[in-house]
What we know:
The chain is of the alpha/beta class. The chain has 2 domains: 3-159 and 343-348, 3-Layer(aba) Sandwich (Cytidine Deaminase, domain 2); 172-321, Serine Threonine Protein Phosphatase 5, Tetratricopeptide repeat, CATH 1.25.40. The protein contains 14 helices and 8 strands. The chain has helices spanning 9-20, 53-65, 92-103, 137-140, 143-150, 172-183, 187-202, 210-220, 223-232, 240-244, 254-268, 277-289, 293-306, 311-321; strands spanning 3-6, 27-34, 37-45, 72-78, 108-115, 119-122, 133-135, 345-348. The strands form 2 sheets. Strands 3-2-4-5-6-7 form a 6-stranded mixed sheet, sandwiched between helices. A two-stranded parallel sheet has the order 1-8. Strand 5 (108-115) and strand 6 (119-122) form a beta hairpin. The two termini are 26 Å apart.
Amino acid sequence: MERLRIKTPDDFISLMGHSLGYWPQESLVCMVLDDRRIGGTLRVDLPSTTTDEARYVDHVVRYIQTDRQATGVVFALFTHAAWSPGDPRPHEAVMERLTGELSQHDIILRDGWLIGEKSFTNYLRMTNDPVKTYSLDRITGSQLNAELVFRGSSIAPDPGFHVPVLAQRDIHDEIIKHCGRIEAMSPPVAIAKARTLWGSFLEGNKMPSDDQSAELLAYFKFVSVRDRLLGDVPGLNENLRDLLLAQTIQAPHWARVDRATDLLLHLYSRADQADAAPILTSLGVIQWWEGRGSRAHECFQRAIEADPSYRLAQLTDQMVKSGILAPWATDRNASYQPPMNRGPNIEGLGMA
């Protein structure tokens, strides 16, 4: 299998952006290492003055420990906060506590960087005189960044979903008509018809017509149908509860999950108000499966704005905000990888 090698700090920092899908702001980002192989990526907000440092570090360590093969970590602090040579390093107490806690589990903090608005520097060498800084332009020009961009990857400026706020065309009346037809069916018949229609698009490459979109949007408004359609997304023959909670041993078929995301965004562009809540919630669940907590939270918040009483969005948002991670996201053999990263192994070299 082809291997991509990380040779410079520029490569590592670039990979952080590609792994997250966006350029983080005011964040601590940790990448887990198993010897020289890259594992999962964690992003958390930087601690504030009121943050309980012990709990904060415990949360980070617990996530890193979910990879039982972890032997090291590289990190970056992304912040626009000003820093001058001679000043204490930003968040120094937290990082020292994190270093100590990880060492208790035989995990070494291998390297790290402070990344500002226009430049970056090695966090572990900020006490040296003089302190060396490097332009962020080096990151966009790195060899690994060029290879990942060639494969179709990109780094968005923020974690948000860039989707239309309003429907392209008002098809609410058509949705209501389909709801009437669905209500006249028995639940097993409605679920079977919904799965047939949804499955035809998951396995194909075309987008639904406006009438097909209205029918699918209507199906998603029925809780039992919605859950079954969402459970069909990973393409696994497993218990529905385990699928929704990402608790299967077998990894999802991530290309199929990507296809579902595209379909749901297409449906969302044709939904309005309460019709959009089930779609936004389903998108949020998929983002949670993929380990993208910030995007999941945004989807759930938009769903609640569309329908303040939408219960699943409320519950799943509480789960994300409490720091509960999808089991798939914590398993390196099952976790989501962007399409351009699914083929090659990525190894780290020259990290010191």
